[in-house]
Amino acid sequence: MKVKNKIKIIVNGKQMQVIYKFSIKNLMTKLKIPLNKIAIELNKKIVDKKKISKIYLQKGDKIEIVHFIGGG
User: Fold this and answer.
1) Domains in the chain: ranges and CATH
2) DSSP reduced 3-state for 34
3) Burial 25-62, CB ≥16 within 10 A → b, else e
4) Its pTM surpasses 0.90
5) What does the pLDDT look like over 13-32, one tens digit per residue?
6) Strands 45-46, 38-42: parallel, antiparallel or unpaired by DSSP?
């Protein structure tokens, strides 16, 4: 039985394993995070949410997901 290649990434400071060729969009779906009212940073660079389905995660990538909260 062949095991799929997995890579380790860091999401908001916590280590996680995902399969090779896993996109940021796949990650948001897996984590059940809605795309509205968040910002995504990949290796200290803000990601354009329109391109997340075409950005594939690499071994050692660091992703920060920030939620916007309204207040007054």
Assistant:
1) 21-67 (3.10.20.30)
2) coil
3) bbbbeeeeeeeeeeebebeeeeeeeeebeebebeeebe
4) no
5) 999 999 999 999 999 999 99
6) antiparallel
